Input
Amino acid sequence: MTKCVHFTGGEATWRNYLTLPNILKEFNPGLKGYSVGKGEFLAPNSHMNVAFPVSADYDAYRQAQFLVKKMKKDPDVDFKNDWKLITMFFGANDLCSGQCYDKDGTTPLQHSKKLQKALDYLQANLPRTFVNLIPVLDVSVSVRVKRSFMCHMLHRFFCACFHQRGDVNEMDQITQLVRDYQTAEQILINSGRYNKKEDFTVVIQPFIKLFNAPIDKKRQSEEVIDISYVTYDCFHFSQKGHALAANLLWNNMMQPVGAKSETSVDSILKHFVCPTAERPYIFTANNSAPPDHRDGRDRMRST
Output
């Protein structure tokens, strides 16, 4: 697995690979923790990237524990004083596979509870931490691209629940279930559970919702993205797709909570949001109000 060109990887610079860490390096050349090169999650060059293939919601807590353990052991990490940026992205495999074998364990409520368990652990154990929570991906994106024969074959393995019949009813069901998952995520974060500390927060970055299938049945088969943005399996992002994801994720981070974009751009870097002199920080629920409406609470800044 090539994690270095994933939108959370850090190989080379943004001019070579547009990724979130490579963007952040422009503001903090001393940034560390991102993965480089090739390798699985146990490879040394994965560094603080603890994601592993085919992860499901129940893996979130275990990965959170592993991440905290790695940070505490790393001599290059000032655990108490370094600011930490974590990006979480779960749920697609629960939609793709869990629905076939454990419907009760893969409901929207269970999705939320498993994320909460992991986030609660991070909040209790990681000081100075900002968590990006990316909503679950609408896995029907896999049929809303120009699919090759290889895509048709692989989808029966990668996303068996959705592709076992592939009829209209399944499309309707997955379209609604994705939205129910996303609503459960929003309810969890909007509860304020992670806005109580000055040095920890979780913010939903909703750019991934641009892939949500329309509710209108007549439009559910419309092409959502060019095939060049996905790999040969028509499911995972290609390098170009990861560059687009990094661009959109960064834009969301630079947009106030409540005013974050959920639409795509025509091309990578066509729209790139920069911090302003007035508000040179990553937005949180507590610092998103206009400056003249602020109540004096500390701002969580990117460092």
